[in-house]
Design brief:
It comes from Conexibacter woesei (strain DSM 14684 / CCUG 47730 / CIP 108061 / JCM 11494 / NBRC 100937 / ID131577). This is Cupin 2 conserved barrel domain protein. Keywords: Metal-binding. Pfam families: Cupin_2. It is a single chain. This protein has strands spanning about 15, 30-35, 45-50, 55-60, 70-75, 75-80, 85-90, 95, 100-105, 110-120, 130. The protein has a single domain, classed as Jelly Rolls (Sandwich). The protein is built from no helices and eleven strands. The strands form two sheets. Strands 1-2-3-10-5-8 form a six-stranded antiparallel β-sheet, with no helix packed on it. Strands 7-6-9-4-11 form a five-stranded antiparallel β-sheet, with no helix packed on it. By secondary structure, it is an all-beta fold. About 0% of the residues lie in helices and about 45% in strands.
Length: about 130
């Protein structure tokens, strides 16, 4: 572990298949943490990269204790944020307040890639992902 940095090419990628049978195989998101307590020692933020293949869905869910940010780097997605739905693509940034239901699905035949960031509040109890579908 480096105290300051890591790289997506050498990061450990995972899916819900590894630990959440409630979501797998309906949610096909693949992700890696680039900044986290385990990768860099960060206790304030977690940041990573996620990908969703064409036809894929990241199920609607919420985090009771954490806010989240998405920054779309490639592909197009239909995003659900609370009661709102909209399309997002490269360059789009989305703020997701604590407790708000959110998810996304790919649009078209390109994979979607998203940089995500969570805050890490003091006393966070994991898991903090609760499925809304």
């Amino acid at each position: 572990m480096s105290a300051l940095r890591t790289h997506a090419e050498t990061a450990e990628w995972t899916t819900f298949e590894r630990f959440d049978s409630a979501a797998w195989p309906r949610d096909t998101l693949r992700w890696c943490y680039l900044v986290s307590p385990e990768t860099t020692g960060s206790g304030e933020f977690e940041m990573g990269l996620c990908t969703l293949a064409p036809g894929g869905v990241h199920l609607r869910h919420h985090h009771r204790a954490r806010a989240e940010l998405y920054y779309f780097t490639s592909g197009r997605a239909r995003v659900t944020l609370g009661e709102e739905e909209f399309e997002a693509g490269p360059g789009a940034a989305v703020y997701i307040p604590r407790g708000m239901t959110h998810g996304f699905a790919t649009v078209g035949d390109e994979p979607v890639e998203v940089v995500y960031v969570y805050d890490v509040p003091a006393g966070l109890t994991r898991p903090d992902t609760f499925w809304d579908e």
